[in-house]
Structures are given as structure tokens and as C-alpha cells.
Amino acid sequence: MQRQQCPLPARKLMKVRHKVFNQSYKVAGPDIVHEEFDGDLVVLNLGTGRYFGFNAAAAAIWGGLMAGARPARFCGLGLADAEIGRFVAELADLGLILADPEAADAALPEEIRQALAAAVSAPSVESYDDLSDLIVADPIHDVDQETGWPHGIRPA
Amino acid sequence: MQPYGVVIPAYNAARTLAEALESVLGQSVPPAEVVVVDDGSSDNTATIAAGFAPRVRVLRQSNTGPGAATTRGVQEITSPILAFLDADDLWLPGKMQVQLQVLHDNPDLALVSCRMRQFRHGVPDDGTGEERGGLLRPCVVLRRAVFDAVGPVLDLPGNRGDMVDWFARLRAGGHRTMELDEVLALRRILPGSLSHGRAAGRDIGYLKVAHLALLRNRRAATDGEQG
Fold it and tell me: CB B15 to CB A150 under 8 A?
């Protein structure tokens, strides 16, 4: 598969953009968990209790990043390059992803390619903190409960 | 003060249940009803609970999770005030007296919570454990009508987040809550039971709670635009 190259307007911006588009990413740590429910992607920071809802384009980019594809592979499929770069930077700013310089570039899964091609609006993420205190306070979430709940006392 | 009923969902809690029940029955304002819901334990949880009859009623169900067990217990309670306790935690003796008084003095209050202090299993509480506040099942005392308005406690994948979801629905319903700055319950910690890493796949319950909240927030935003 030929990697897509994004157009880079100015020398300085070029360097920044080149970096954003041409490196792999990973979730920013074990507190960042994600799951799709009925086609709806939810990302949650267990450490802060903040959660995020993604629209279709955003979910496709997230899926591509999680598959190990570098953002350059998302270009030329429908979304504007600037939208892609802005959104990847936003995910990093939100503390959801980190650059993973050691990781190899992976191919873009076909379903992600199709989702990016079908995207009708720019990627966007909603951020909520209305569960934060409840999730952070919940004692269960940091306790091993292999053998029982609520708090997982192991049998003698 | 109004009579209250206590629901204790229990699963393989034979080591700790008797102590939990003694902390309930030893309250300075004793409960009118206590229901232990044994959620298909493979140990003698039910036998231990039955040893406290007739003051304690025992229900048994096949293993479905803490949410269903809590809801099943509430269905058995006829008192106008509800309280919960996890089978491995403890109440301090004056807990219910304090919280019942708060509900009595604040008729518009739906629920009153308190703080918990950690203690190590096998070591008596010495008052130095870490304290934790917030809405927590062993801490909350609420009006029965509020529980009915919010609806059943839903079990979520991985048995995590059931009360987070219920409390989130309580808030979304606009019910007024209050958290006391006083430690009235104790949370048991067994050395080695704390997981320092995240359990992959087990936190999906919290993700499900977040998705349900996301859908509620999106609905509210749409209704706001239309309204």
C-alpha cells in the first residue's frame, strides 16, 4: 500500500505536520480505555472519570490509530488533511494518545478506510465530566474481585 | 424518625458477612428490616445470614450480579427509608441515627451519604486508614420513593459500575443529595486485593456506564434544541 503524503504549506509548519502525520500513536496509558457500543465509540479516562464521545469521522481516526496506522494513511480519503492533523493533536492534548516513535506503521484496515471515505463531517469529540466523581470514588474499580464482589475478598 | 430497611447483596462473603450484619444490628437506631441477597454463592454465605434470623431475612438467587441482587433486596423492603451495605464493609454504630436525622430535617433531600475509612481485614480499625467520600453503596441512605423513581440497579459487564450508573441516573433525575463530611462506615481492605494495574476487559462496565450517560447527554442536548 502506498503511503499518502499530506501537502505541507510552510517550512516550519511542515516540520510539525510531518511529525504529526508520520508517527504512530498509542493510548496514553492503562487508564485510557475504549469500547464501541452499537457502533458508538466511547473513550474513558479511568483516572479522572472523564469520558468522550466520538462522531463517525473521529471514531474512524481513533480506530486507525489504534490499529497502528500513522495519520498520513488517513489523508486523501475524504477528510481534509488539516482536519486530520488538528484532530490527532486534539486527542494528544486531551491526554488520550501518545506518540509511539518505536512502533512500525501498520496498514489501514479496510473498514477504517471505508469509514473515512464515508465521513460527512469533520472529526469531533464530546467531553464530559459528569461521572468523574462517581467513577473516581467507586471503590470497586481499583480492587481485584476474581472471587467475589463487591470488594473481592479472596476465600481463605 | 422513619423506620428503615437494609439491603446487603452478598456473593461468597462467608468471611465477612457476620461482622457486617453485627454492625447493622448494633446500630443505635436499629433497622426495621434487614435483607441479605445471596447471589448464588458457592460458600456458606446463606447459612451465615440465616443464623441471624429472624432479624435478618435471606433471599437466594442464581448468580446475576450485584445490581440485580440489590434491586431484589429493595423489592422485599417495605420501610420508607433504604440503606445498603456491601457484605465486606462495616457501619459505625451511630451511622443510621445521624443520617436518619438529616433526612428527617430535610424533607426535600432524596439521599444522604457519608465518608468511609479503610481498614485492613483482620486488624481492628484504629482510625488512621485512608478516608474516601462520594456516593458509595455502603454510605447512602435514601427514600424508598426515590429508588422507585430512579429504577433498578443494572448489572454491567465485569460487575463494575452498577452503582455509578444508578447514582448518575439519580442525578439526571434532578434528585437532591447531600454528602456528610463525617466517617460513618468502614471499607475493608485485604492485603493483596488491590490491583495496581488496570484489568483489561473488566473495566468495560465503566465504559458502558459512560455510554449510557453519553446517550442521556445527547438526548438532553437534542431536547434542549427542540424545546
Answer: no
